[in-house]
Fold these 2 entries.
Entry 1:
Amino acid sequence: MNVAALLLLGLGLLEAEGRCFFNRTQEHCVCYNLSQESVSSIIQCLPASVVEFLGGELERYIAFPIGNLDPSAIEMLGSLVIRKIIFGDLLVPEILLARVLRLFSYTQVQELVFERCIFEGRGNWDEMARQDLPILSLHFHNVTSAPLTGREQDFFSLSSWLETLQELAVTGSHVTNLPCGIGRVFRALRSLDMAQNSVGDESLMLAFCKGAFPQLQVLSLQRNNLTSYHSVCESVQLLRELQHLDLSQNKLMADLSSSCQWPASLRIFNLSDTGLDKVLTPLPPSLEVLDMGCNHLHTVDISLRSLKKLFLSQNMLQASPSIRNCPMLETLHLDNNLITELPWDEVKLLGRLWDVAVAGNPYNCSCSGAGGLQALAGMGHLGQGWPQDYMCHSPPHYQGRLVKDVPVSVLQCNSAAVIAPVCVALALLGVAGAICLVRSRPGLARPCRRV
């Protein structure tokens, strides 16, 4: 009880009237506006693995004395099973945060989250110099703080901890730039999420300078102010370990010519909802997953030998793209395009894939439109959307019907499959008749015997 209260006081959470609620099944505890009178309810949070603190202003605790803990308090903090702490809807004075953050060095907390918080003032981070923390994941969402420019020294004071951080997310927080010197501190970072900010082409180039984020594997720049495909390529060229890049919901434009080479390590590329009306080049050569959904593509012609998954839903494609130059392809999604039918030669190729989705297209339920889809469904490749999301748009007498309900005969829809054997049979009969006629003449071999 005393240690729990001490931790809360150190974090400045004893504020307005409130209490805690513990979900034993999820091991999740939520505390609303704790006060010194209701702090006893924190006891029920002690078995939780996730604790969430919501509400309050911490200004009154700026002068709160935070000294060194005695051995018994340190031992008690180390025994807690809390792995994740979430702070939400708080006004956080940085000077207080700088003093109490070192308390986490005595815990087993691995993930720290701030949501809808306002960071006020500027703290003295020198107290954190050479201080290690167990926190490996740090998330900020919809927060407000002073600009990062000129704060390199603050990050350097935190370098003993930040050099071990593996996951960082700063989303929806109006960030416009990430200074080069700050990126060099995050030497072990594997994942960086900068989605829903205001990062532009020029500031991105400065952020990923030489020595910044040397181990980065996953980078999300979703919904920023990026416009140049070539500039983004040049910006991330030095990220030699990059495997997953998300540029979705930016408005990218093709450059007249680009010789930029993407990192050879890049395997997953998200270009969905980027306003594309044609496939941008060059594409990373070793891609395994490419998402170009929610664009304005009319045609797609790509050649990627290692590509396994291609997502092209919600475009303006009138035909299925050729997949002959993607020999490793396993998944192809073409939902909600303008495709009216799947020719039989394409059906044969698509039949080699594991996962095909072409729902929500305006199908002409004639031979190829219905027959090809029914053939794919019979192979078990059309997934969850079949049959309810596959509707006929034409001809008029089939409009509104499910594709699966359209009667399709072999004679109607693949006449070659019927005519060819018939022609062969007629030819064989003609040859057999000629032989019999020849043999039936006097002086020749015995007459042909009917079989």
Note: The longest strand covers residues 19-23.
Entry 2:
Amino acid sequence: MVATSTLKTKNSECITELDRRPGQTHFGKDSDFWDVCLAEPQRSADLGEERTCRQLAEMFEGVLSRAKRPTLHCSSVLVPERLTRRIARHVLRLASGEPCGLRGCVFYVNLELDEGVKRLERVAYDAAVVPTFELTLVFKQDGAAWPSLRDFLFLGSCFAPKSRHVLRLSPGFRLVKKKLYSSSAGTEVEEC
């Protein structure tokens, strides 16, 4: 349907249909302007949380990317789809009850390999804030993944025996939360 200014009869049904577009708010008889305005802070809070979640996921991906060559001795790291987003949501939930929220967090990002646990990086979310809690994130190597043929064969000096071509992560992870501001605070472990 195309709306033009030459419409001779004003049919209320037709005008309602023209006024409603996807993504726009319609004020009917049962709602008014203030009901919609009061609902907006929740919507903007959700958008802020989604933005923070995305930033955290990008931060975790950046840590993995920086650790590829020097620490993990591989050319690429395969991360399961939405893994970093899931981790970010868990982190936001754990940070919600803290005095400074996420700003008071220090992350220790580790990777659990067959040989043991390797520390990848320490990241302070906001370096200007005194840390109130620590979160240790442990990514896990996918043990079900088939190793490449290059890992089995030593084909010369260009393929060092300790280097991998691809490291595949498992969809599982572990988060360990340690509070720093309370002497009676314990450690909270979440295995996902």
Note: The first strand starts at residue 74 and ends at 78.
